[in-house]
């Protein structure tokens, strides 16, 4: 039971961290100040993780997830389907 509670907590934290990106008004606009702010915040968090235990592994996993989301987004655009990061994760 404790493991499920921990997973739920981690899931909610991840959703809270990704929510600003998912709710962007212009997610495809790389010059959007909100998007730049989100990206900078995530870049700093990932950079800080390098100094934690298993930080490099978490950073690599984050990069893998990012590449997967980019791939899914490109595939969806090819098929004219709009997919958000939240839909790709679930």
Describe what this molecule looks like in 3D:
This protein is mostly helical and about 90 residues long. The chain has one domain (about 1-90). Helix content is about 75%, strand content about 0%. The protein has helices at about 1-20, 35-50, 55-80, 85-90. The longest helix has 24 residues, at about 55-80. The chain is globular and about 40 Å long. The chain starts with a helix and ends with a helix.
Short description:
This protein is mainly alpha-helical and 90 residues long. The chain has four helices and no strands. It has one domain (2-89).
Beta-strand proportion: under 5%
Distance between the termini: 22 Å
Number of domains: 1
Share of residues in helices: over 70%
| Biggest sheet features | none
How many helical stretches? 4
* 3D shape: globular
Report the structural category.
mainly alpha
User: What is the tally of beta strands?
Assistant: 0
Low-confidence stretches: none
Could you tell me the mean pLDDT? 76
List the helices and strands and how they pair.
Elements (H helix, E strand, L loop, with lengths): L1 H21 L10 H17 L5 H24 L6 H5 L1
Helix pairs in contact: 2-3
């Amino acid at each position: 039971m404790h493991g499920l509670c921990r997973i739920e907590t981690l899931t909610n934290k991840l959703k809270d961290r990704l929510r600003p990106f998912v709710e962007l008004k212009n997610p495809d606009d790389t010059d959007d100040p909100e998007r730049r702010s989100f990206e900078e915040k995530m870049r700093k968090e990932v950079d800080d993780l390098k100094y934690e235990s298993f930080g490099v592994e978490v950073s690599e996993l984050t990069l893998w997830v990012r590449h997967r989301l980019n791939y899914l987004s490109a595939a969806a655009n090819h098929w004219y389907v709009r997919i958000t990061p939240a839909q790709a994760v679930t």
